[in-house]
């Protein structure tokens, strides 16, 4: 209405320079003469009213467009603020993760557990799993956290199937859940786990962790105990299988992508060479694992295991 009023003032009628109520109109008389007549006030006002209504109606689309622009700009501002907010949370989360602040990271991310953002959700899956792995976590709480992590990872994958990290953490969490669901479920899940690790590598060939995890998958099935192999053959026509050579290939590939990125990759290189009876290369990689700077509880455990394996070499020699 305000816009219509402004437009009205700019028109001749709005400035009161419109002609008087004398309008020429030809009227056919018996003699064919033309004459003029004075229009009644109601006719004049009726015409002006019709014009006003016409003007208002023509202004409505413009008003609607103005409103659309206002709402669109507001929506864009809100969306931009939301993106910046998510980015800020992710930066905080990554800082806490790199700093080893597992509990603080979990507390931060659980505030946003209803989020629809895949990047937030897979980080929450990782944080839940990390809390579950802490030595102070009870077995009952650990189980709850493992299943919670799987749910977050699943949601992350649903939100963004192109996220390599979502595929990676979904596979990790399925593997963890298998520990609570028996050998049959664990073997059945192995196919799903492999599929998602392979997809993660396809989406990001430079992610050393995904490659390392694919190596663990191969190593696990290469050293599967005979009784589990028998169960697998009974349950599945073609049970999952692999070799130490295949596992070794993935561990080396991970190391090429990101040298010394993970103490466990160094340890598993040493252990795989032991399985292949190459003690010289086994000792080389185990020494690297033992000397790896310990930043986490897991690093310390790996140092201890590597040292024990190296001591075993000395005793046998």
From TrEMBL:
It comes from the Eukaryota. GO terms for cellular component: mitochondrion; mitotic spindle pole; spindle microtubule. The keyword Repeat applies. InterPro entries: RMD1-3_a_helical_rpt, TPR-like_helical_dom_sf. It is found in: Cytoplasm, Cytoskeleton, Spindle pole. Keywords: Cytoplasm, Cytoskeleton, Microtubule, Repeat, TPR repeat. The keyword Cytoplasm applies. Gene3D superfamilies: Tetratricopeptide repeat domain. GO terms for molecular function: microtubule binding. Interacts with microtubules. Belongs to the RMDN family. This is Regulator of microtubule dynamics protein 1. The gene is RMDN1.
